[in-house]
Design goal:
Blueprint lengths: L2 E5 L5 E5 L12 H8 L18 E4 L6
Antiparallel strand pairs: 1-2, 1-3
Bound molecules: zinc ion.
Length: 65
């Protein structure tokens, strides 16, 4: 199941991490994503805060079928 990080403001998918057959592969932490994505949402410009990325929701089990 993919792990999707979304902007909590506009719902833009910021990063998708597919875990298909790679359970042991390291899932990026919010802090690592902050480094990848940058300090704000590329779509709506909402600032993301480093410690908790509280504007980003971690959603699992998307596309369960
Ligand atoms: Zn956004």
């Amino acid at each position: 199941m993919p792990i999707i990080y979304r902007c909590g403001s506009c719902g833009e998918t910021l990063f998708m991490f597919r875990t298909v057959g790679q359970d042991s592969f390291g899932v990026p932490t919010p802090d690592e994503l902050f480094t990848k994505i940058g300090p704000k949402c590329p779509k709506c410009g909402k600032r993301l805060t480093r410690p908790t990325l509280n504007r980003v929701k971690v959603i699992g089990r998307v596309g369960n079928k």
